[in-house]
Specification:
Elements lengths: L13 E3 L5 H14 L2 E5 L5 H15 L3 H5 L9 E3 L17 E6 L29 H26 L10 H5 L2 E9 L13 E4 L5 E6 L5 E4 L10 E2 L7 E5 L1 H6 L8 E4 L6 E9 L5 E2 L17 E2 H12 L4 H7 L1
Parallel strand pairs: 1-2
Antiparallel strand pairs: 2-10, 3-4, 4-5, 5-12, 6-11, 7-10, 7-12, 8-9, 8-11, 13-14
Helix pairs in contact: 1-4, 2-4
Pfam family, one: 2OG-FeII_Oxy
GO molecular function, one term: dioxygenase activity
Keywords: Iron, Metal-binding, Oxidoreductase
Length: 331
C-alpha cells in the first residue's frame, strides 16, 4: 500500500479559547496560519458529553438502510444526504469519488423567509422524527454552538491580521453566515494513493474556516507545500474533545495569500471513521476583496473582488455529482 507504515505526525499549535492571555493565543494562531493553516482549538465551551451525543446521533443516521438515507438525498440547496462516491475532490488523481458518505445541515430558514430562496439557505432536509427521534434538535443545537466557536476563532484571526477583533463579526460578513454542518462517515475501505483510491481526495476547503471534530481513528493528512515534488504528507493526530481548525481558500484570497489554505486528504485504513465538519463562510452578499492590512504598494491585491455567493456556488458545482444521476438511478 502507498501509505507510510509509520505515521509522520504534524506538530500543530493548540489554541486554548479559555486562555486569559489573548496575545499569547493570537501569536500561536498567527504562527499556525503562516505555517500550516491547521491548528487545534480546545476549551471551546462545548461539553464532551454533548460532543459524544452528536457523534452517537450521527452514527444512528449512517446506520439506517440505504433507501431510508436516500429519502433525505441532498437538494439543490445542498441540504441532506450525499452518498458514497458523490463527491470528487481530486479528479486528477482519483479513479472514483470519495469513499465517504455525508449529510449537510445549513442555517435553518423557513419556506416563508425571503432568504430561503437564496442558495445555501432554506429549510433543512431532515430525517423523519419517527425514524430518528430527537435527532433534529441535537443537530440544530450543535450547529448553533459551533457557530459561536467559529466566531471566537474568527476574532483571533482578525487580530492576527492586525484588524479590529470584530472585523469578521460585522452584519455583512458573519451576521448572516453560510454555516454548513456536515456529518461524515468513512466506510472501512483501505485507501491506496498509488491506485487512485481515497477516503477523501486531496483538496483545500472553499471558505473562511473549517472546524472539524473527529473520532479517534487516524485518517486526516496535510501537505504544507502543495508544489513540492514529491508531496510530503503528515498525519494529523485526533485530539479528544478538540476541534481541528483549518483555513479555507476564501481567507487565503481575502488575506492576499498572507495566510494559507492547506491541501489535505483522508486515507482509509480499513476502520470505519466518523467526523463532523463545520464550514463557516460569510453571508452570500459579502464582497471578498483584499483586506486593508494585507496590501501595500509593493504587495498589491492578487485577486479581483468577488461576491461570496458566486464563489461558493462555483466551488460546490465543481466537486459534486450532478443530482440528475440519482433521478436516473431511482427511475
Amino acid at each position: 500500500m502507498g501509505k507510510q507504515s509509520t505515521p509522520q505526525f504534524s506538530a500543530l499549535n493548540c489554541i486554548d479559547l479559555s486562555n486569559p492571555d489573548i496575545n499569547q493565543s493570537v501569536n500561536l494562531l498567527k504562527e499556525a496560519c503562516l505555517d500550516s493553516g491547521f491548528f487545534y482549538v480546545v476549551n471551546h465551551g462545548i461539553s464532551q458529553e454533548f460532543m459524544d451525543e452528536v457523534f452517537a446521533q450521527s452514527k444512528k443516521f449512517f446506520s439506517l438502510p440505504h433507501n431510508e438515507k436516500m429519502k433525505t438525498l441532498r437538494n439543490e440547496q445542498h441540504r441532506g444526504y450525499t452518498p458514497v462516491l458523490d463527491e470528487l475532490l481530486d479528479p486528477e488523481n482519483q479513479v472514483h469519488g470519495d469513499y465517504k458518505e455525508g449529510y449537510y445541515i445549513g442555517v435553518e430558514k423557513g419556506e416563508d423567509d425571503p432568504q430561503s430562496k437564496k442558495p445555501f439557505y432554506g429549510p433543512n432536509n431532515w430525517p423523519a422524527p419517527d425514524v430518528l427521534p430527537g435527532w433534529r434538535e441535537t443537530m440544530r443545537k450543535f450547529h448553533q454552538e459551533t457557530l459561536e466557536v467559529g466566531k471566537a476563532v474568527a476574532k483571533m484571526i482578525a487580530l492576527a491580521l492586525d484588524l479590529d477583533a470584530n472585523y469578521f463579526d460585522r452584519p455583512e460578513i458573519l451576521g448572516e453566515p453560510i454555516a454548513i454542518l456536515r456529518l461524515l462517515h468513512y466506510e472501512g475501505q483501505v485507501s491506496d494513493p498509488s491506485k487512485g483510491l481515497y477516503g477523501a481526495g486531496a483538496h483545500t476547503d472553499f471558505g473562511l474556516i473549517t472546524l472539524l471534530a473527529t473520532d479517534d481513528v487516524l485518517g486526516l493528512q496535510i501537505c504544507k507545500d502543495r508544489d513540492a515534488k514529491p508531496q510530503k504528507w503528515e498525519d494529523v493526530a485526533p485530539l479528544k474533545g478538540a476541534f481541528i481548525v483549518n483555513l479555507g481558500d476564501m481567507l487565503e484570497r481575502w488575506s492576499n495569500c498572507v495566510f494559507k489554505s492547506t491541501l489535505h486528504r483522508v486515507l482509509g485504513n480499513g476502520q470505519g471513521r466518523y467526523s463532523i465538519a463545520y464550514f463557516l463562510e460569510p453571508s452570500l452578499d459579502c464582497l471578498v476583496e483584499c483586506l486593508p492590512t494585507c496590501k501595500s504598494d509593493s504587495n498589491p491585491p492578487k485577486y479581483p473582488p468577488i461576491l461570496c455567493h458566486d464563489y461558493m456556488t462555483q466551488r460546490y458545482k465543481d466537486t459534486h455529482a450532478d443530482l440528475n444521476i440519482y433521478k436516473k438511478q431511482q427511475a
